[in-house]
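re: ur question from earlier - yeah i can do the single chain one, its not a big deal. heres the input i used so u can compare w yours
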Amino acid sequence: MRTVIANAYIAPVAGVEIPFGYLIAEHGRITALGPGPAPRIEGAEHIDATGCLVTPGLVNTHHHLYQWATQGLFQDATLFEWLTGLYELWARMDADIVHGAAAAGLGWLALNGCTTSTDHHYIFPKDRGDLFEAEIRAAREIGLRFHPCRGSMDRGQSDGGLPPDEVVEQREDILAHTAEMIDKYHDPDFDSMLRVAVAPCSPFSVSAELMAESAALARAKGVRLHTHLAETLDEEQHCLAQMGCTPVEYMAKLGWLGDDVWFAHAVHLRDSDIRRFAETGTGSAHCPTSNARLGAGIARVTDLMAAGAPVGLGVDGAASAELTSLAGEMRQALLFQRAVHGPRALTARQALELGTLGGARNLGRQHEIGSLAVGKLADIAIWRVDGFRSAVEDPVCALVFGPTPPLARLLVGGHTVVEHGELRTVAHDATGRAGAEARKRLRQAVSR
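and the output i got, formated as tokens:
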């Protein structure tokens, strides 16, 4: 399997940009890239990328795919109000709902240039089928690299937590099922399409014992750790009142800082927190649209980057970031940082790095994905920046500053997932309808 991409503007993210050049992929990996016309290789697929920008595929480092079925609700709520309203709906989902929502959510990511995505699934209603398998199956059908995070909650309202008791699990059951999912699905190979992370939900829904034991389990199994942290000031007040320390201090006590950890959001950080993240290699997933939609604030992305801490992007769940694309989050990240810190706070190329190599670092895959280089995996986005967009001389600016360009092609390991703006691995329209059907089924389940 050989693919030759010719006549392209190539932005490798790490390395010098090539205004007119080519890229060759063979057997799922990049074997050559350089300036000038492409060599003619007999038997290879040749893609004429005239008028196109070639970048690494985008890497999404925070999501809740099941939320595709609950978009547009609680539109003017704070995080805690929004969660309290939605827990009752999420408690009624089953494996079919999760599969339909995940297929639509992953398809949407692919259509907007994403080749690798995580998912943080932390609600497991009893006797509703295998929800974890349902989203893994959806990712395999779409053809994206997938990092599902086995989430959990064991601290319900009766124990001082936020979620109702009906949606929490017993700690022993959580740890046993998490270990089972790692053993069954996690693939550590270089070209892995599936890796599992351990991801208790948040300080306000998980006991200290589960946080600590989850960290021990992840490290014993050699997998990564993920959770929400410092998303809102309400969370900080909750931690100060119940734990007697700030969220980051609490994580440090529980062994949750390190280069195998990445947090979602990390909006409300102190200078000392940023230093700790940088010193320990702890990553964060910046989700600007969701943070703005819920009025949570703006993460200190430029400060984290300046300190040397890993930072990637996440779209977050669609219930707090309706129809958000990861390419759009590059633009949002750039604009929000500039709104706070001025026009030099974040460049177009830094925003592209957040959406690619920054996300790969969060997932511990910076040597495999996130940039275009010989030996790395052939996860490639080919963006059309011709036509109206050709009035913007800098194609990276056209990608980041403006609305998301259409995709000419999306390759994952050299395989075509999107071509000419349509999904090729699954039925395009049916995948979109699956998301709507998931919403309908959930509404019916709630009404019953």
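The chain has a mean pLDDT of 97. not sure if urs matches, ping me
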